[in-house]
């Protein structure tokens, strides 16, 4: 039977690359995100190139009632989810804590922590019922280290790191695999979002070195998702060769 993957934040960057990779691997995919136009484009691409089934869901992970309603109302043929990729997330701003913008903090906390929790709370009982499933959380080097201006974003990713460990413990008796991937700098829309649309500032982040690309993380997702039943990758830290730690980049 064809496996089903549910991907949050599939409209861009890492989530989009993972959706394509998983479809190539033979998964039917549920794509979710807020931008309907991007979901539709990706749906058409996957259906035409990889001939997998696609369900697209316009969904803001911050809205708990929408998350519950959408997941409860999944068509029966989409309910047997094998893989949940908790990827939707963002950083907003680089202010020091004392100058922090409260709305930026709320967006990061509500998306990266609470959104991931809402989705996992709604979906995991369906996996538990089947005693089968795999949850992969996208954390970050920012979930292992803290850097200047990273305060709240790093805290949210540290929380996802802790939640992954908690999920692993809680899901153990139900035979559900739980993994996390912690990437270093990946060139996606991430910095455009962080700098609120300032493309010039965003481009500076990746200038002078070769960052990771979304496809590198998709390769890791495929690897983690295709291990034999008795193997669980708990955590994978992936850095660009030119980046040793959170802000230690060898720029030319
Ligand atoms: P992008 O900005 O390219 O993609 C982010 C995705 O998250 C988009 O699809 C966006 O969709 C979605 N998203 C954001 N907010 C919401 C929301 N409220 N509800 C639903 N979907 C949402 O960034 P990346 O691909 O780089 O980021 C993906 C994940 O990887 C994030 O969790 C990020 O923290 C993490 N990460 C990124 C790194 C990097 O350097 N790029 C490094 C380490 C980790 P839409 O706007 O359509 O809702
Ligand atoms: C994104 C990578 O280094 O900008 O999580 O925090 S970093």
TrEMBL record:
InterPro entries with a match to the protein in the record: NAD(P)-bd_dom_sf, Sc_DH/Rdtase_CS, SDR_fam
MF terms in GO: oxidoreductase activity, acting on the CH-OH group of donors, NAD or NADP as acceptor
Alphabetically ordered keywords of this record: Oxidoreductase
Record Gene3D superfamilies: NAD(P)-binding Rossmann-like Domain (3.40.50.720)
Record-given protein name: SDR family NAD(P)-dependent oxidoreductase
Family membership noted in the UniProt record: Belongs to the short-chain dehydrogenases/reductases (SDR) family.
């Amino acid at each position: 039977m064809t496996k089903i993957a549910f991907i949050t934040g599939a409209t861009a960057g890492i989530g989009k690359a993972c959706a394509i990779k998983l479809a190539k691997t033979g998964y039917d995919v549920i794509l979710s995100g807020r931008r309907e136009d991007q979901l539709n484009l990706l749906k058409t691409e996957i259906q035409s190139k990889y001939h997998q089934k696609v369900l697209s869901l316009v969904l803001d992970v911050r809205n708990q009632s929408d998350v519950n309603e959408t997941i409860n109302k999944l068509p029966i043929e989409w309910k047997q989810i094998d893989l949940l990729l908790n990827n939707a997330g963002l950083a907003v701003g680089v202010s020091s804590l004392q100058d922090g913008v409260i709305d930026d903090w709320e967006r990061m906390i509500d998306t990266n922590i609470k959104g991931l929790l809402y989705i996992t709370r709604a979906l995991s009982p369906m996996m538990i019922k089947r005693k089968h499933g795999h949850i992969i959380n996208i954390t970050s080097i920012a979930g292992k280290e803290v850097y200047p201006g990273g305060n709240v974003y790093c805290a949210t990713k540290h929380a996802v790191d802790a939640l992954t460990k908690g999920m692993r413990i809680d899901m153990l008796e139900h035979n559900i695999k739980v993994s996390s991937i912690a990437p270093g700098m990946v060139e996606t829309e991430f910095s455009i979002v962080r700098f609120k649309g300032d493309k010039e500032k965003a481009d500076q982040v990746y200038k002078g070195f070769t960052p990771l690309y979304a496809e590198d993380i998709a390769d890791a997702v495929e690897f983690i998702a295709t291990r034999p039943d008795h193997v669980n990758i708990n955590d994978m830290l992936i850095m660009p060769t030119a980046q040793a730690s959170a802000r230690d980049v060898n720029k030319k």
